[in-house]
């Protein structure tokens, strides 16, 4: 499954492929955590997310692309991997927030063997599992589309669960609790409100 996030200051016109899933958002804030960043949307801009079987083209000034892949380091039947599905948060009076996090790993990460990389993952997974019921996650692989980032992680949650999300991010970015994070050299957060 291919995913396109497209954003700009003007109304965005993107054809929606047959069978695609499309959502619309307002950009609330952008937080740079580490390293240089790819071009980023600005607060107040509209952002569209389209998931389709084939890549989707857009003329928006800011775009992020990725595709779902098979689990490389975890059992695909394990709860954390199985939770990498389409977010389905029912509409209520509590607004739904989303955060896109483009990440890039260092060359040192890719110099490790598959087994060495796999050994780094359990801590990451253990930190994330308790949040599965309230924070929906979708991971996209991006190295075939750009050199600016390797992964796009999309999170979706109710506004009332924002403190939990920030707690999760602090834990994941703590190299004492999650040694894998020492291999991250680019990291930012794009905060959104889901409109449709």
Throw out a few tags for this protein.
8-stranded antiparallel β-sheet; single chain; about 35% strand; 4 helices; Alpha-Beta Plaits; globular; about 200 residues; alpha+beta
Describe this structure in words.
The mean pLDDT is 89. 18% of the residues lie in helices and 35% in strands. The protein contains four helices and eight strands; from the N terminus they run ββββαβααββαβ. The chain has helices at 79-82, 107-111, 114-128, 162-172, and strands at residues 2-8, 21-34, 46-52, 62-67, 96-105, 136-141, 151-158, 184-194. The chain starts with a strand and ends with a strand. The chain is globular and about 45 Å long. An eight-stranded antiparallel β-sheet has the order 4-1-3-2-8-5-7-6. The protein has a single domain, classed as Alpha-Beta Plaits.
Compact overview of the structure:
The chain is an alpha+beta fold and 196 residues long. The chain is built from 4 helices and 8 strands; from the N terminus they run ββββαβααββαβ.
């Amino acid at each position: 499954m291919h995913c396109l996030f497209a954003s700009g200051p003007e109304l965005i016109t993107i054809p929606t492929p047959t069978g695609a899933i499309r959502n619309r958002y307002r950009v609330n804030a952008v937080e740079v955590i580490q390293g240089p960043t790819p071009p980023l949307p600005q607060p107040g801009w509209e952002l569209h997310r389209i998931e389709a079987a084939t890549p989707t083209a857009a003329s928006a000034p800011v775009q992020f692309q990725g595709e779902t892949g098979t689990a490389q380091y975890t059992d695909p039947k394990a709860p954390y991997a199985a939770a990498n599905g389409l977010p389905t948060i029912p509409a209520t009076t509590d607004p739904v927030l989303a955060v896109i996090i483009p990440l890039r790993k260092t060359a040192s990460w890719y110099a490790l063997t598959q087994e060495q990389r796999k050994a780094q993952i359990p801590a990451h997974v253990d930190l994330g599992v308790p949040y599965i019921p309230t924070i929906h996650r979708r991971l996209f692989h991006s190295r075939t589309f750009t050199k600016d980032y390797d992964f796009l992680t999309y999170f979706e949650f109710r506004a009332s669960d924002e403190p939990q999300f920030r707690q999760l991010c602090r834990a994941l970015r703590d190299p004492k609790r999650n040694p894998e994070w020492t291999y991250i050299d680019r990291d930012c957060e794009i905060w959104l409100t889901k409109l449709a």
